[in-house]
Specification:
The chain is mainly beta. 7% of the residues lie in helices and 39% in strands. It has a 5-stranded mixed beta sheet, with no helix packed on it. A hairpin with a 6-residue loop joins strand 17 and strand 18.
Length: 463
């Protein structure tokens, strides 16, 4: 039975590739190579050249895959931006996080999961904390780790592939408290290990856990002590990170589980509503694209190929309504993240495995779809300010774009892959430095156009 599933998956990938190769190239929109002059035309709006930011959690400082550092250089030579350093690392897809001049990475070496701290500027090892790792993937993917750390002031929260939850000191990596969530709540074993990064919401961590011991599908843990504050639902877990927003005077947390989008009160765990969004009777097909907030009162979810996408309108009284819903052929993203740009959203589609789609938020319709043979396959991306996108494909291809409503303008395309396949981790941009990883190396590139003012330097820069 297991072999049949693998054969079906291979057949799907082959079929998808053939369909991609048959697309009409004449339908592809604007793609000309940008120059310094065209970039100057794009930069007509006001820009805060002094703005820099740490990247302390998954999807960046504001949780929307956006960096405010518009001053960075996105026009690179064919050889790519300047490589500052590279480090050999272990397995996993966890995203590095950065604060106070420290970079924290979760990865796996042999039978140990590790939280390793490096100097974010120089790549020097500062400390390392390890715990046993027992998870084994049944498929040809990594044995973990999958979640991304969360930095909060002088603490770091990490969650391993077998649900070991640790609170560590940012200063030296010492353990402040630990919880064995597998022992406490018996979460359903997922086909690719546990991978839902917790949401830090006020004084608590909210976890898309999928516990099967009591109503523990979603839980809240006190960030200072590790004690459980509440448990709610019998939902099974997905690979999605919860999001939080305020509408009127009401705070909401939205959690995309294996089968439902669930809206809760983060203070109590009370469920306001849930909407089914998953593929029934399929253990392997699990939601893996975290919800995207559109403003404060709308939320967008997607999955593909499968249910398509839905945009919901939230109300302060706890009610909601569907703005639009699509099935196949529109906004679909199997696990790559979504980018919000003005009145549209950008996502890489899994149907062709090599296509960037731009979706109108008004009605969910496709404005354009861009492909470049098969080199865009499963790209993970970040937005730089209001105008630019930096992406890393599964094959290690690094590129930058200036998407608009009319089409994507290609800015830079690095001729040779910057990493070997497979790259399944979102790039990170902090203090003008771009970080990318696969399961062998973590690399740091400089996107700094010139010298930085003294007040923008990280602690590790200063004498």
């Amino acid at each position: 039975m297991h072999l049949n599933k693998i054969h079906l998956a291979i057949l799907f990938l082959i079929t998808s590739g053939l369909l991609a190769g048959c697309q009409d190239q004449s339908s592809v929109p604007l793609q000309e190579q940008a120059t310094q002059e065209t970039l100057s035309e794009l930069n007509t709006g006001s820009r805060d050249a002094q703005k820099v930011a740490d990247w302390p959690r998954m999807f960046g400082p504001d949780g929307n895959s956006r960096s405010p550092e518009e001053w960075v250089n996105v026009l690179w030579p064919a050889a790519g931006p300047k490589l500052l350093w590279e480090i050999k690392i272990g397995r996993g897809y966890s995203q590095p996080v950065i604060a106070r001049g420290k970079l924290i990475l979760l990865h796996r070496l042999d039978d140990w999961e590790l939280a390793t701290c490096y100097d974010s500027e120089r790549g020097q090892l500062l400390w390392e904390t390890a715990w046993p790792a027992s998870y084994r993937n049944l498929y040809e993917y990594s044995d973990g780790t999958y979640t991304t750390p969360v930095i909060d002031d002088d603490r770091i929260y990490v969650l391993g592939a077998t649900c070991q939850l640790l609170c560590l000191s940012l200063d030296d990596g010492s353990r402040i408290w630990t919880r064995d969530m597998e022992q406490d709540y018996d979460p359903e074993e997922l086909p690719y290990g546990f991978g839902a990064t917790p949401l830090l919401e006020d004084d608590r961590l909210i976890i898309n856990l999928g516990g099967q011991r009591g109503p523990s599908g979603i839980i809240a843990v006190d960030k200072m002590t590790g004690d459980t504050l509440w448990t709610a639902t019998e939902e099974l877990a997905s690979y999605c990170t919860p999001v939080a927003t305020t509408v009127g005077d009401q705070r909401f947390v939205l959690v995309l589980t294996k089968m439902n989008l669930v809206c809760l009160d983060p203070a109590t765990g009370e469920v306001f509503w849930k909407e089914e969004f998953g593929i029934r009777n399929s253990r392997e097909r699990i939601n893996a694209v975290s919800p995207l907030l559109v403003g404060k009162d709308r939320v967008l979810i997607t999955f593909g190929p499968g249910p398509g996408a839905r945009l919901f309108q939230l109300s302060a009284d706890g009610s909601h309504e569907t703005v639009w819903s699509t099935r196949r052929g529109g906004l679909e993203s199997q696990y790559t993240n979504l980018l919000l740009q003005d009145d549209r959203v950008l996502a890489f589609s899994p149907l062709t495995s090599c296509e960037l789609r731009c979706i109108d938020l008004e009605n969910g319709e496709v404005l354009w779809a861009w492909h470049r043979e098969h080199t865009l396959r499963r790209s993970m991306s970040i937005q730089v300010g209001e105008k630019y996108v930096i992406a890393l494909s599964q094959e290690g291809q690094l590129f930058s774009l200036a998407p608009s409503r009319e089409g994507p303008r290609l800015i830079s395309w690095v001729e040779e892959p910057v990493l070997e396949p497979n790259c399944f981790t979102q790039p990170v941009l902090s203090h003008g430095l771009l970080y990318v990883r696969n399961e062998k190396f973590l690399k740091c590139f400089s996107l700094r156009a010139g010298s930085l003012p003294e007040d923008l330097l990280t602690a590790s820069d200063r004498p």
